[in-house]
Amino acid sequence: MKKRPRDPAFALYDKYPPSPSCSCDICREYCLRPGWWTVSEARRAMVLGYGGRMMLEFSPDFSLGVLAPAFRGCEGFFALKEHSHSGCTFLSDGLCRLHGTGLQPLECRFCHHERIGLGIQCHSDLENNWNTPDGRNLVSLWLKRMGLTYLSPLRNQGASAAKL
To answer: In which domain of life is the source organism classified (predicted)?
Structure first.
């Protein structure tokens, strides 16, 4: 019997363990900006019906897309700067509705005021997790389910929406 490959997210779970709960001002500020799921976490959230509460974020050059909990006002759409001040769609009365459900993004679980400077590396590793065929396929599926079309501004350079 062929052994199934290990989900790449498992290495990230080992590297970025959950932080202790904290409600200090710094940690609460982290909650205003939605953290990123791994590809497998976002897939699970979609299966459980949360696709409409996600948004698609792009890298600055639009070569990479990441599904994340939406800013309020961007649910089921692209991340828009105009809504970045609105906070995470799952933050209600200062509490995360995903906390303790098994659906909280890895980046949210990891970030903590005592982990100074480590959030940048976590974010970078999550970017790498999304910059895979699995990540691009999930983004394409989400776009289709949301009825959205994405034409890459890089299409004249050989990129296409399918490569997102």
So the answer is: Bacteria
